[in-house]
Amino acid sequence: MAAAIAITLPLLSPPHSAAQLSPGRLARAHTDLEGTGHCLDCHTTGKGVDPARCLECHSLLREEVDAGKGLHAGSEYRACERCHIEHHGEGFELVFWGEKGAEAFDHRKAGFVLEGAHARLTCRGCHKPELIDRADLLRRQKKDLLRTYMGLGTTCLSCHQDLHAGQLRERGCTECHGQESWKPADGFDHRASRYPLTGAHARVACERCHPSEPTNEPGVTRVRYRGIAAGWCGDCHRDPHAGRLGNRCQSCHHTASWKTAAEQSFDHERTRYPLRGRHRNATCESCHRGDLLARISDFERCSSCHADQHRGQLLERRDRGACDSCHDLQGFSPSRYSLADHQQSPYPLEGSHLAVPCIACHRPVEPPRLRQLLPAERKRAPVKRERPVLQYHFPSTRCQECHADPHRGALDRYMGADGCAGCHDLDSWYTTRFDHRRADFPLTGRHAQVGCRQCHPRIVLAGRRDPMVLSDLPLTCVGCHDDPHQGQLLQQGVEDQCTRCHTEDNWQATKFVHDRDSAFKLEGAHVRVPCADCHTEEVDFGRPLVRYRPLATACAACHQTNMEVTRR
Amino acid sequence: MQTLRRSILTILYLASLSLVAYLAYQGRAYYLTPIALRPRHELYWTLKPGGELGILYGMAGTAMMVLMLGYSLRKRVGILKRLGSLRTWLDLHIFFGVIGPAFIVLHTSFKAEGLVALSFWSMVVVAASGVAGRYLYGQIPRTRAGDELSLAEAEALDEELTRELHQRFRLSPQALTALQELTARGSKRPRSLPVFLVRSAFDAIAFRSRPWRFRRQLEGVPPELAKSFVRTLRQKASLGRRIVLWEQLHRIFHYWHILHKPFAIIMYLFMLVHIGVAWMTGYVG
Exposed site from A148, A217, A389, B84, fewest CB < 10 Å? Predict the structure, then answer.
């Protein structure tokens, strides 16, 4: 018994019992609580380890638990000793992460789900001293900042720098950014902003509108997202209209392209070229080819858009061929070029010309011919499949420009400066005023009374019927008249032998003197003999003939003896 | 009656030890886990000393350890002498002394640290000494009631057994002489106490087979009679050995009490401290 007491008492002495009453030494973090005097600092009679006692020291944790934050706010983590097992020695880890260690900790239990890039970080990637909020407070709580997992905030800015420098403070980072990567900001929808991006705006790189700018911190820049002027298009775009059309660009344009005008709303009246007439019905592309908003230079000139169908023929006009002189916007055809206008032209219409349709004179001319007519056209490169152009330009106003010369130039020597008008007038070709005295055959005597066609007949030559033969006509009597004498009276070397006996007044041989002009002078009774008694009618080659030659001059030739009948 | 008592004891031992074995087997995964890793084991909160089952093991074991004191009270308190024989109380004392520590071992989860370790190891010493003491106890002749025989009573009993062997079983004087020699072999005065204890234990085991050598001479004898003969033979041999070693046995038994009781006191003392601390820290109550 004494031995038992001798053994027992020393062991019950405080220095020894302090170490022996405890089922084991406390972990290093609780070294200060070693000793029997501190048992009730953690333990409560009847309750065991009271979590409230734990939280008296772990005040920061108590704040989180009271606020419902963090892992320990969960009901399954209220019994401290269930996880943080003590009395297993100084080296015993009070925090047990499980077989797979801290990296396998389900962070959802801590009230912060790790997603995206966060999930790939190691624990200490975030839980490091420089990111701990209220680090000083933790240090005062004797927290090892290199080992604690407390003190981190759950907002983005608690760990990450606000690169927007507070511009977007009213919005949460997660509204735009995901946790996989800051860039791109997939959550950002520009359509939800104050300036939705439509059309071409959607294809513009962000930095074009959101430039980087320096901040107060040296070497630090930020991207401007606020305060960007976007009241109207001119805040970013140059106004090619120089303010003439106001600042409501969207009334004509839309963001798909400057070159795509809002046809439904584009008011051409506001331009310097209001659409009139047929222009109203034209599509934009028909004038603004390839580039709807391309400016058309010299838009006042029709030729800026329309090809000169006259191929410059009218450039010599006083108005330099201005289209609106003849045409209006209701259509090129018909033109309003009137007869009155034509009377002002270099070729006023007179006579029959007044009744001639335009196309009769202004005929289609082939381009090669046109190039011959217009020197300027010669310089123009031939266009494939050029079509004939109505001729408006005539090298001269001579009748030959339009009319073919039926005389085939035979009367050119009679034309003179007046040309065809020297004989003809504009009322009719058939009304001529030719002075026959100018011709090689002046009309005298009965010739002057003869109709032109009796001497100038219509002939058909080479299949072509001329209206009248006016040249190369015989000038001798026999050229027109038949020789009734059938050559009896022809003399060699004598032209126009008819005139020896006859005149142009009539065919009576008024100029014939028998005694002078014949070989038989009429003397005596012969004077009283009718011509027919000597000069009898015959039929020669089927044609009646009065014989004049040869006649025998011997008396016997005419006179018979009493027995012969005088021959007539 | 004795058979009934033995049967009952046997059943109790079997059941209790089976229960302990079963509980130990169920918790083997935890018990085989290194101590440093046990806090992470799924059965930690069940089988740790303060766990759901661990505390029950402790309560059961403690209850048995307390009930063991009944034997001491029975021996010393007069009123209790009327409550069953001392042998029965001893049997219960021994029973609780075996099963109780087993439950305590389960309660400790095979780990004893701190001040309570003194109680634990004291318990181990007490239990081990109890085993030895049970053996020594058996070496001291007693009445059926368990009362210790005096030397004279033991010698008288030896005389009676000799007479029985001679008269009932008709052993010849030569056989008796051989028997005497047989019993005397285990009764030589030992050189030292420890040697004596060791040799005595071996002799006790070995002697169990020796009487059967006489059985060859009992051919034709009815089995019951043969069993009775062997039993008497053993009894006489045992008694004879004990008589020869009477003094040594009593001295050893006296020393055993020095070992058994103080450690029991230490055990109970630190057990109370341990329970008090456990209560104070909220693990019980």
Answer: A217
Number of separate domains in chain B: 2
CB atoms within 10 A of CB B167: 9
Q: Which residue has the higher pLDDT, A101 or B175?
A: A101
Domain count, chain A: 2
> Side chain identity at A81, as an amino acid letter?
E
pLDDT of residue A16: 47
Residues 91-130 of B with CB under 8 A from A: 113-118
Q: In this complex, is the C-beta atom of A506 within 8 Å of any C-beta atom belonging to chain B?
A: no
| Closest B-chain CA to A43 | B281
Could you tell me the pTM of the whole model? 0.54
- Residue B20 and residue B98 in one domain: yes
Residue B43 scores a pLDDT above 90:
yes
**In Å, how far from its chain's centre is CA A85?**
85
- What SS3 state is found at A36? helix
* Spatial contact of A276 and A329, defined as CB atoms under 8 Å apart: yes
**Distance between CA B89 and CA A313 in Å, rounded?**
151
Task: Encode pLDDT of A114-164 as tens digits.
Answer: 988 999 999 999 999 999 988 888 888 888 899 888 888 888 888 888 888
CA distance B283 to A21: 14
For residue B269, which residues of chain A lie inside 8 Å, CB to CB?
A: 4, 8
Query: B136 with B179, same domain?
Result: no
Quote the tokens at residue A172.
Answer: 């949460």
The position carrying tokens 């969207």 is A250
Does a structural domain hold residue B162?
yes
Q: Is residue A359 part of a domain?
A: no
Residue A106 tokens read as 């389900």
Q: Of A340-344, B12-16, B66-70, B158-162, which gets the smallest average pLDDT?
A: B158-162
Phi–psi pair at B203, nearest 5 degrees:
-60, -40
Least confident of A76-90, B80-94, B240-254: B240-254
Name which of B40, B114, B279 is nearest A21 (Cβ-Cβ). Answer: B114
Contacts of B275 (CB under 8 A, 6+ apart): B62, B284
Rg of chain A's alpha carbons, rounded to an integer? 65
The DSSP annotation for B213-261 comes to: HHHGGGTTS-HHHHHHHHHHHHHHHHHHHHHHTHHHHHHHHHHHHHHHH
The interface residues of chain A toward chain B in range 443-462, judged by CB-CB distance below 8 A, are: none
Chain-chain contact of A1 with B262 (C-beta, under 8 angstroms) = yes
Intervals of chain A under pLDDT 70? 1-20, 259-266, 290-294, 375-385, 459-467, 495-496, 561-568
Give the per-residue pLDDT at A568. 41
- Domain shared by B27 and B126, yes or no: yes
Q: Are A255 and A199 in contact (CB under 8 A)?
A: yes
- Can the peptide bond before residue A334 be classed as cis, meaning omega within 30 degrees of 0? yes
ipTM over 0.90? The verdict is no
Lowest mean pLDDT among A191-205, A549-563, B155-169, B205-219: B205-219
Domain of residue B139, residue span: 2-145+256-280
Residues B29 and B139 in one domain: yes
pLDDT tens digits along B13-39: 999 999 999 999 999 999 999 988 899
Q: Is residue B218 part of a domain?
A: yes
Dist. CA B156–CA B189, nearest whole Å: 21
